[in-house]
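Suppose a colleague, Dr. K., hands you the sequence of a protein chain of 121 amino acids and asks what its three-dimensional shape might be. Before reaching for any lab equipment, you can write down a predicted structure in token form. Begin with the sequence itself:
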Amino acid sequence: MSKYYVNKFLYQVDGDPELLAAYKADPAALLERWELERGQWLNRSERTTWLSFTDREREALIAHDYVTLFELGAHFFLSLTIFIAIYDEDYASEFGPLSFQREYGANLARWMGTDYPSVAL
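The predicted structure, expressed as tokens, is then:
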């Protein structure tokens, strides 16, 4: 896993309303677009060819599977904030305030009191 690459994706998509809307609407298409347009750029002038998602990362990102992303070592705060942005309004209207955050916490509860997966690069 390239924790850097997954975290870069989460960070960039969460910080861009247009990318976030595209990720919510069609995750597979946005993932492919992001890899072509942004993923290979380390900064504005340096490009890399060695970074890519593993099949498992790609599947988790497409499925919005934040538990698998967490277990693979994606930074919990980056995955929490992007999925709050995607799901909070829908969850809040149906289940009340902080509903998605409660679900996120419940789904990751088995990690309480244990060593979390490392987010170190």
